[in-house]
Amino acid sequence: MIRISDLSYHHGRTQVLDQVSLTIPKGGITALVGANGAGKSTLLSLIARLTPLQTGSIHVGDLDVSRCPSDMLARNLSILPQNTEVAPRLTVRELVSFGRYPYHKGQPTSEDHTKIDAALQDFDLTPLADRVLDTLSGGQKQRAYVAMTYAQDTDYILLDEPLNNLDIAASRSLMQTLRHLSQEKGRTIVVVMHDLNYACAYADHLVALSNGKIRAEGHPSQVVTNGFLSSVFSTDAHVHHVDQVPVILV
Amino acid sequence: MTRKATGVFGLVALLLLMGVSLFVGVMNVSPKDLWHDPEAMRLMGISRLPRTLAAVIAGASLAVTGTIMQMLVRNRFVEPSTAGTGQGAAAGILIATLFFPAVPLFAKMSLAAICALISSFGFLAIVRRLPPTQPLLVPLVGMIYGGILGAGVVFVAYQADLLQYIDIWMNGEFSGVLKGRYELIWVAAAVAALSYLVADQFAIVGMGRVASISLGLNYRQVITIGLVAISIVTALTVVTVGMIPFVGLVVPNITSRLLGDNLRRTLPITALLGAVLVLASDILGRVLRYPFEIPVGTVFGVIGAVVFLWLLYARPGHAR
């Protein structure tokens, strides 16, 4: 699990996170939701140490994020970079190989190659393995990046808005893959998402932030209510239920 | 073309060109003269061989450092000689010549490398503040930055009556390469070769800061290593043969277009291609206006500009 205690973060005079204490359970998919500027991405990048800690502490499993060596952190936790506008000219296989870098440090072993092949296989990328990233569709590219993160073989996987720019088919397929990873491989997955319907459909645990504070936490079916929408998102949209899953009609 | 085919083709071309380079010049020497004419042998040892090796090393190491800089800055349109590193190196030698004229060449070179490093960090600091959505600003700002530094160097040199030195540092040419006066450039070759050991790290840095940290890389350390390598190679090149623009810009772009950005696989090809193009330009410079010479920087500038235009306008195969 990920334990966060008394975490505050200032950006200039703006308080981005205010005394956040939170436990993200081991296993399953945890969705981080909240209005724009609520502090979701900041929280994620603090957990992955992309941003240095100011006050408070974060433990990922037994690791103290502020202290542990960077290659050890990289073997326990991976974060999917948000879709970059400038992608390097790499083939899918080369990209996925870089996921093994924390282990091979430039000299891939046969075990690394096995894991790379497995990652390509698991994400249906084997036919695309020698294609250059630029020639892929948005969904395929995103899948290649997730496969790289998967090849990193970490217990904890963080993703920052992975559904951006994906159509409905690609979004569903990605979320199904993530569900598979959490259920079959026991990975703990934390996803920042904007679309509450996807969060309700796929997350096992939902954490809502607004103005730098945790507003609600729990299973989506319990958390997502009309009152929740108006207090966290200041919107009067209505929550319906389909097979006990909350659905918000926009 | 596959990587192997490109490699073999490049290697054959390089060996052929090296052979040609040994026998092209103001003094006429043919291979069979070497057997009975000691004068011809002396010319080989003192001038032709050092000149050929200097061109190969300068071409290879400039191409490699160009690649590294493009990865560090995450922009394909920059290179050390247009973005301030070369001008910084020139400023360093100028300072050394003005204030410490008696120090040995190695000390001057070190000061040049330090100044090159400072100006490279300066460029990186400026690039960080540019909006990431405007990638073309990076090379423009680089050219302005390099231009301002270069203008400063020229102004000071003019005041101190050192303009003819500036000319030697800024316009690369190999006609002055003689045994005993070019060997420092072997250090550049060593630095470029060593940087191959961390090729993977440069490739990952090219994917951005987030990807680098996520993969457990010490991002700042890799950036620093890269800038140090770039600065040393640039300073050594400026000191020994002078600046050769476009090599670090054009060659990495050709390799990337043909073979991609997996540096562990492509960096040797980049080095080979840089060596071939620079040596070919030097040979061309020797024969075009025989018995006079055109500096290699000028020849490569023309070739480089044409190739670069082709890169910009050609319908990208799988380019972005």
UniProtKB/TrEMBL annotation, chain A:
Residues in ABC transporter domain copies: 2-236
Transmembrane in keyword set: no
Subcellular location: Cell membrane
Main localisation: membrane
Keyword Ion transport: yes
GO molecular-function term, one example from the UniProt record: ATP binding
Swiss-Prot/TrEMBL keywords: ATP-binding, Cell membrane, Ion transport, Iron, Iron transport, Membrane, Nucleotide-binding, Transport
GO cellular component: plasma membrane
Sequence similarity: Belongs to the ABC transporter superfamily.
This protein's name: ATP-binding cassette domain-containing protein
Species the sequence originates in: Aliiroseovarius halocynthiae
UniProtKB/TrEMBL annotation, chain B:
Stored Pfam families: FecCD
Topology relative to the membrane: Multi-pass membrane protein
Swiss-Prot/TrEMBL keywords: Cell membrane, Membrane, Transmembrane, Transmembrane helix, Transport
Transmembrane segments: 7-29, 49-73, 85-103, 109-127, 136-160, 184-210, 222-247, 267-285, 292-313
A single BP term in Gene Ontology: siderophore-iron import into cell
Keyword Transmembrane listed: yes
Gene3D superfamilies referenced in this protein's UniProt entry, alphabetically: ABC transporter involved in vitamin B12 uptake, BtuC
Places the protein is found: Cell membrane
Protein name per its UniProtKB record: Iron chelate uptake ABC transporter family permease subunit
Single Gene Ontology MF annotation: transmembrane transporter activity
GO cellular component terms attached to this protein's record: plasma membrane
Matching PANTHER family: FERRIC ENTEROBACTIN TRANSPORT SYSTEM PERMEASE PROTEIN, PETROBACTIN IMPORT SYSTEM PERMEASE PROTEIN YCLN
Originating species: Aliiroseovarius halocynthiae
The family this protein is said to belong to: Belongs to the binding-protein-dependent transport system permease family. FecCD subfamily.
UniProt xrefs under InterPro entries: ABC_BtuC-like, ABC_transptr_permease_BtuC
Top-rank lineage group of the source organism: Bacteria
